Each structure stands twice: as C-alpha cells, then as structure tokens.
Amino acid sequence: MDEWVACISKHPELRRPRARTITNPFTNAPFRYVPTPDKANIVEGAAPAGAIEASSEFETDGQLLVYSNDRRKAFVRKIARRIARSLGAQLLWFPDPLIRLAPTKSRPRAR
Fold first, then answer.
1. Domain extents for the chain?
2. pLDDT in tens, 3-35
3. Which of 9, 27, 61, 96 is spaced 20 to 30 A from 44 at the CA atom?
C-alpha cells in the first residue's frame, strides 16, 4: 500500500481528493467526507476524468479499482494501465455515475 500511496504523490495525472461536506443520503444530515490516503482522482488538465483507489485487500490481491467518466474513458484507461504496469497491479473497471460531467445521450440499439 505504501508504494501505491507514494505513486499518487509522484504521478502528474493523479490528485488527492479534498475533504468536503456532503449530505448523508439516508439521514439528510451534513457529513464531513475525508478521503483516505489511497484514493486519487485522475485528471486531464484540470478536469476530473476518473478515480482510482487501492482495493481493501491491495496488499494480497494487488488490485486497483478504476472509475471513469464516459467521455474520458480512453484517457483514464491509458493512465490506469501505465500505473498498474509500474506497480505490478491488476485493474478492476467500474462505471461511476457520480463523476459524469454531463449526461450522455442514449442511442437506440440496432437490432
């Protein structure tokens, strides 16, 4: 885990998320969210493109969890793969509706 946390500080496309106050969806009460040191945002320029974090079992499974914005998926995959290679880690990909910058237009499926 130490190697992953050190990687976050060194990598130009990774930024640590800031602590912020959010609303608890179950109680509607304000809650202070303080991200753990193993969480990072993947940024393209100044814009968030995705997120990456170590799995809870990173020391034994070597997995990084990757969340990507639909519009920046190719960029996020490129960065995540580069990081995984440098750490000898595996990647697990997740869509994350919370970081979408704009709604995507749905297209009818071809039959």
1. 2-99
2. 888 989 898 999 998 899 999 889 999 999 898
3. 61
